Amino acid sequence: MTRFDADTPAERRKLFAEAVTAHRKRGSPFLTITVEADPDLDGTDDDGDPLAAPWLQFAEKTFNLDVTEDEHDRLKALLDEFREFRIEEVHTPEESEGTNLRITARSDANRLAGFVDRAFTEVYGRDDDYRAWVTQI
User: Fold this and answer.
1) Which CATH class is domain 5-37+50-136?
2) Residue 104: what are its φ and ψ, rounded to 5°?
3) How many CA atoms lie within 13 A of 88 on its CB side?
4) What distance separates the 2 farthest-apart alpha carbons in the chain?
């Protein structure tokens, strides 16, 4: 592993918190976190290749993510535990099967990191040992 990926809950949360802190200090436009594609969870295209893995972006105080209808329901349940987070925008293009959400999240880096980790496990169905990468800060 490098300083940009992690595969245990504690290491992922540390990685995510450090990425949020770096994003804020640098004033970068956004940070992006991705996970490995899993055909059983993400589906496959017509050729049997895995579809894109879930990702989350964070900019200033806003998360940006795409969800299916079922994932949206699970996300709303997770947000019940993160009362300071609010879904601010919902965009569902006609040609898409998913929904893009913007979630305002005013909190410290550790709380944001905990949300990201739980979103990947509880919303996107990843196992506790999933690997995540910070791909852009």
Assistant:
1) alpha beta
2) -75, 130
3) 12
4) 43
Domain boundaries of the chain, sorted by first residue: 5-37+50-136
How many CA atoms lie within 13 Å of 61's alpha carbon, on the beta-carbon side?
A: 10
29 token code pair = 């436009």
The pLDDT tens digits along the chain (137 residues) read 347 888 899 999 999 999 999 999 999 999 999 998 888 888 888 888 888 899 999 998 999 999 999 999 999 999 999 999 999 999 998 877 789 999 999 999 999 999 999 999 999 999 999 999 998 88
Contact 56, 116 (CB under 8 A): yes
pTM: 0.91
Element spanning 18, H or E: helix 9-26
